Amino acid sequence: MPEEQIAFTGADISKEVLRALDTMNIRLMTPVQAETLPLMMEGRDVIAIAPTGTGKTIAFGIPMLEYVNLSDNRIQELVVAPTRELSLQIAEELRSLAQYIPGVKIAVLYGGQPIVKQINQLKRHPQIIIATPGRLLDHMNRGNVRLDNVHTMVLDEADEMLNMGFVKDVTRIIEATPADRQLVLYSATTNSDVQTIAWKYQQDPVEVIIPATNENRPKITQYVIESEPKNKYEHLLYLMDSDEFSRVMVFVNTKDMTQRLCNRMQKAGYQAECLHGDMRQGARNKVMQAFRKGRFQILLATDVAARGIDVDDVEAVINYDLPNENEYYLHRIGRTGRAKKHGVAFTLLTFAESVRFDTILKYIEANPVILRFNEHGILCGEEGNAFFDNI
What we know:
By secondary structure, the chain is α/β, with parallel strands linked by helices. It is 38% helix and 18% strand. The protein contains 15 helices and 15 strands. The protein has helices spanning 15-23, 31-41, 56-67, 84-97, 115-123, 133-142, 158-163, 167-175, 192-201, 232-240, 255-267, 281-292, 303-306, 326-333, 354-364, and strands spanning 46-49, 77-80, 106-109, 128-131, 152-155, 182-187, 206-209, 219-226, 248-251, 272-275, 298-301, 316-319, 342-349, 369-373, 379-380. The strands form two sheets. An eight-stranded mixed beta sheet has the order 10-11-9-12-13-8-14-15, sandwiched between helices. A seven-stranded parallel beta sheet has the order 3-4-2-5-6-1-7, sandwiched between helices. Helix 3 crosses helix 4.
């Protein structure tokens, strides 16, 4: 990893992309960009293991835009991502990078959107496709998509995608691309499925590991609020009424509870919306767009619905329920503390969840601050001082 940050102007990047980066107010490379961008520009296969929120989309997006042949209407660049939200997010960032390159066409293919709308996108002959595995295979089976001219294929959040059961789908997609295409895997962690894909389909890959250093590790202070099940809702409202946070994500374990909690908060006058798997994709897109634009304060979500969501200015994350998987806890709190800002995470912890939480803490090697409500209903730190008077 380079000791000093490198400016994008020092790389072999076209003036159109440099202009777009300047418009986006991005001038210095993050470690993952500095390490992987030159390798991709050389045409190497890459396995990049890096923390979330470190600029991976720009790292693979720039080489893709430099490679694309605008006079060729076939699909040349392909990004496969695990979720609809992440696919849309990647497309948005790539379009920003390509804003000064006339003729670049980008299509997004994901489940939950009418397939006719996507067929119309494909009729415009996009050179770049971002897709979820299931919907991409659907289009391939219908004869709407051919991948025999793909130059670069990226698997984003490869570990998450393969953990979600997409191994066979991803394998079929890779095998539909040319044998000599460039295959790049970006992942927050590695696992046996990632290693198997790399061994089977990559050619002499370069492995890049970006550790979570003080520079790229999200700055998140973790708090635990001792709570009883019957008091969780009141404690949640206490945090909201503090007026300390204007953009908050609240994680709940089930779709039903997410919706009921959202309805309850809305009736109480709070600016709250929710995301869960029972919602139509159009409704989910509207909620995310409104949250990014700051039109409401509180987003309640399940783990599955929140995968891939990247909003730079989430000020606090609240675990209303304790997640069932250690990794989910990391994914949740990682929604705050992005873009080198400081974030906070609260967990409303019941006695029944304490053993499970100890397992999570050992996994993430963390030592959160314990908070308690005193007899007057004031949230206090270990020394008995009012919490919100001290942060």
